[in-house]
């Protein structure tokens, strides 16, 4: 078993995969993300095209060096919280000596050669807000749980956002659906008032002066673009990305100074974020690559996106 | 001719992007191409010392010639595990 996975590793599965009647020994290396001051976990970045190929080459090399029965390597990528397993190497052989040696060889080679990087970037002192309150009327079912490359959209967004923000919350009308994500869930104070109501809820139920708000339907959301918007939006009342003739109000930064304006819009029954931002003087428009803000409206959008070659590391 | 460049880890942070496509007039060594991306030549040399090159998913020497259609990745010191 040689695998790169974005989800958690089932360690017992990996260990079972090297079981062999002719093996008298099996040796396992299990790497976990350890606790260190100021971090919530690590993000593993990797070079998709090359990583699996190199892992296979390293395993072949280990087999050439000594007689082994079975070898498995599983590496997790993306966001890995403290205490969770990032890598498992399992080797079985007739006698213990070869298994010990091969296991050591494998993990050292992996660290040295395989294009995977631990990232521990500073956490920004802002609250991240994921809006998952929509009815996804065009989509038919809850968009948050539609999958892109096998992973629910909401999980992708959480994976990108978790390492970045001091605090991350989800605003939703259906908290029960999101419990498994272990994040604070804010019930929409203004149900079905769209994103404007969701942001209002987040301001009312969190204490941070600045919120970074995203929708739950952006399969290509990236850490860089979020950092760029935050960086350029310093001191502004709002920072919204722009490209060509588009603006994305749901990948944007909003200051608590706008809370009265949100309140007024809701009272007046005006639910357009675009309209609201039109009344903000101190707003920064941040040019970005529009691809990264691409959001999905139909299941077909997702399948089409999977079929095109959108490259780029996690 | 077009070449696709990939940036990871510290290089990705430095250039604020993970990939880009460039247009070249003639084949050029991977190292030369890498150095030409920097404005600050001292910094470029520093990065060069710790960067490996991967051409179409294969580690190659810095002198390797890059041609149209190639994918060239710059690989900073890895830290998997």
* Whole-number mean pLDDT of chain B: 93
- Structural class of the helices, strands and pairings of chain B? alpha+beta
What's the multimeric state?
heterodimer
- Beta-strand proportion of chain A: 25-35%
Number of strands of chain B: 7
Q: Which structural class should the secondary elements of chain A be placed in?
A: alpha/beta
Explain the overall architecture:
The mean pLDDT of chain A is 89. Chain A contains 9 helices and 17 strands. Chain A is α/β, with parallel strands linked by helices and 314 residues long. In chain A, strands 8, 11, 12, 13, 14, 15, 16 and 17 form an 8-stranded mixed β-sheet that branches. Chain A has a 4-stranded mixed β-sheet with strand order 1-4-6-2. Chain A has a 3-stranded antiparallel β-sheet with strand order 5-3-7, with no helix packed on it. In chain A, helix 2 runs antiparallel to helix 3 (96-113) and helix 5 (194-205) crosses helix 7. Chain B is α+β, with helices and mostly antiparallel strands and 81 residues long. In chain B, 30% of the residues lie in helices and 33% in strands. Chain B is built from 3 helices and 7 strands, in the order βαββααββββ. Chain B has helices at 9-15, 30-36, 41-50; strands at residues 2-7, 19-23, 28-29, 52-55, 58-60, 65-66, 71-75. In chain B, the strands form 2 sheets. Chain B has a 5-stranded mixed β-sheet. In chain B, strand 4 and strand 5 (58-60) form a beta hairpin. Chain B is globular and about 35 Å long. The model of chain B has no long low-confidence stretch (mean pLDDT 93). Chain A binds chain B through residues 31, 44-47, 49-50, 53, 75, 86-87, 107, 110-119, 222, 224, 228, 311-313, and chain B through 6, 8-9, 12, 16-19, 54, 57-59, 71, 73, 75-76, 78-81.
């Amino acid at each position: 078993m040689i695998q790169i996975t974005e989800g958690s590793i089932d360690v017992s599965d990996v260990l079972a995969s090297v079981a062999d009647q002719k093996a008298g020994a099996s040796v396992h290396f299990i790497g976990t993300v350890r606790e260190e001051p100021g971090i919530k976990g690590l993000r593993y970045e990797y070079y998709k095209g090359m990583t699996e190929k190199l892992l296979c080459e390293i395993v072949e090399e280990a087999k050439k060096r000594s007689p082994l029965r079975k070898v498995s390597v599983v590496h997790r990528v993306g966001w890995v919280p403290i205490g969770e397993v990032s890598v498992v190497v399992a080797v079985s052989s007739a006698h213990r000596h070869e298994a010990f040696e091969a296991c050591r060889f494998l993990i050292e080679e992996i660290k040295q050669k395989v294009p995977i990087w631990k990232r521990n970037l500073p956490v920004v002192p802002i609250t991240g807000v994921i809006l998952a309150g929509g009815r996804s009327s065009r989509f038919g079912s809850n968009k948050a749980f539609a999958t892109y490359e096998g992973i629910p959209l909401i999980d992708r967004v959480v994976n990108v956002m978790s390492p970045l923000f001091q605090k991350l919350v989800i605003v939703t009308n259906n908290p029960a659906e999101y419990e498994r994500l272990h994040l604070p869930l804010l019930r929409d104070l203004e149900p079905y008032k769209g994103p404007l109501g969701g942001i209002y809820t987040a301001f009312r139920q969190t204490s941070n002066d600045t919120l970074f708000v995203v929708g739950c339907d952006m399969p290509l959301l990236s850490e860089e673009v979020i950092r760029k918007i935050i960086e350029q939006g310093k001191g502004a009342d709002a920072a919204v990305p722009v490209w060509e003739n588009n603006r994305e109000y749901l990948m944007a930064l909003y200051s608590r100074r706008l809370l009265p304006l949100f309140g007024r819009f809701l009272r007046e029954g005006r639910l357009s974020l675009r309209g609201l931002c039109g009344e903000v003087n101190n707003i920064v428009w941040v040019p970005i690559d529009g691809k990264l803000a691409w959001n999905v409206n139909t299941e077909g959008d997702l399948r089409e996106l999977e079929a095109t070659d959108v490259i780029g590391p996690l | 001719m077009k070449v696709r460049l990939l940036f990871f880890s510290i290089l990705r942070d430095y250039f604020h992007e993970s990939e880009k496509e460039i247009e070249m007039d003639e084949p050029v060594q991977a190292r030369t191409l890498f150095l030409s991306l920097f404005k600050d030549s001292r910094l470029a040399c520093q990065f060069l010392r710790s960067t490996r090159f991967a051409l179409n998913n294969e580690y190659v020497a810095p002198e390797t010639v890059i041609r149209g259609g190639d994918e060239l990745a710059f690989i900073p010191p890895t830290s998997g595990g």
